[in-house]
Structure to design on (334 residues):
């Protein structure tokens, strides 16, 4: 078992990675960040060692692993835009698959046994039933989801062949922010619903609902939102479980409760007290009507309980980060 508390966070300047760095520091660990800043933000990483570079750079990895006694690696360095992955699959396979293989081989070389991988509900593809448990078939429908599925299969092979242990954590809809920090979700382009709604408030622009004719109670898509702080606690619990049991695993990270697009908009109105104009657009290809996790396995395996992931709390925490830029709204309707 590792005695050092040095953990390499690849992609540590991104949304979830930077929150993980903050959480690890708070819990007494020493995170070391490696990020190429292609999508991450330099100002998201403070008061920790931060190395600019790519996980495909094997010479740099050797330098890092020779300088530091690393007990585990947490991987957040993926490209995540589904639509872009369809149009530029080579970019996604090069970054999400090929570069990760370089990282895994470097870990083997330096005898680093523990790997926490940010996977995705996208590995399931179109849900055959909901809520989705870990026994659901893995049938990804786009290059982004396939890139996550490929790495999960590679991890299975590594765990069989080597003294290597992994946890593949399949996120549903990551959202929120830690209100004790200045960190926030800042993708370019932004594609996630909650920051788009709050940006619409800030800019006094309408928000578009893509499809209002799904087989759901209000006709809009239903998703499972999990607070980024709850994701971070799950990552550390997963690492501790790997070290304790020496058994690799994959598990869902969600709450088991779904909210429709319309419910998210209504809740944002209630939390912010601001009006939100809505436009109805056409359905987007590949949007399933309902995507909700069965988190039972993670709750039992990791003893994990999401504590910040009710929708109002998620929106409130994000709103705190942007409210100072928004004029006071007198509107208090739903």
């Amino acid at each position: 078992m590792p005695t050092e508390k040095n953990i390499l966070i690849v992609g540590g300047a991104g949304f979830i990675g930077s929150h993980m760095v903050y959480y690890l520091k708070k819990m007494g660990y020493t995170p070391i960040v490696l990020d190429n800043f292609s999508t991450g933000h330099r100002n998201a990483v403070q008061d920790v060692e931060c190395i600019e570079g790519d996980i495909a750079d094997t010479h740099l990895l050797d330098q890092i692993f020779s300088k530091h006694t690393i007990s585990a690696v947490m991987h957040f360095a993926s490209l995540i835009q589904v639509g872009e992955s369809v149009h530029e699959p080579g970019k996604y396979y090069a970054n999400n698959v090929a570069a990760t293989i370089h990282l895994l081989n470097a870990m083997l070389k330096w005898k680093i046994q523990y790997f926490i991988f940010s996977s995705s509900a996208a590995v399931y593809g179109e849900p055959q039933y909901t809520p989705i448990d870990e026994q659901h078939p893995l049938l990804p429908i786009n290059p982004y989801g396939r890139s996550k599925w490929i790495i999960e299969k590679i991890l299975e092979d590594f765990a069989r062949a080597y003294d290597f242990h992994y946890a593949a954590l399949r996120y549903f809809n990551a959202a929120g922010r830690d209100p004790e920090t200045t960190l926030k979700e800042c993708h370019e382009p932004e594609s996630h619903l909650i920051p788009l709604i709050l940006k619409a408030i800030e800019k006094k622009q309408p928000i578009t609902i893509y499809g209002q004719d799904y087989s759901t109670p209000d006709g809009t898509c239903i998703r499972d939102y999990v607070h980024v702080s709850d994701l971070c606690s799950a990552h550390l619990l997963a690492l501790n479980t790997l070290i304790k049991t020496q058994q690799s695993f994959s598990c869902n990270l969600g709450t088991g409760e779904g909210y429709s697009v319309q419910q998210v908009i209504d809740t944002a109105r209630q939390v912010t007290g601001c009006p939100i104009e809505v436009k109805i657009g056409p359905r987007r290809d590949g949007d399933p009507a309902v995507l909700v996790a069965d988190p039972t396995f993670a709750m039992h395996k990791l003893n994990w309980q999401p504590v910040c992931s009710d929708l109002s709390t998620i929106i409130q925490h994000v709103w705190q980060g942007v409210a100072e830029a928004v004029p006071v709204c007198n509107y208090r309707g739903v």
In short: The CA atoms of residues 120 and 170 lie 4 Å apart. The first helix runs from residue 15 to 26. The chain is about 40% helix and 15% strand. Confidence is low (pLDDT under 50) at residues 325-334.
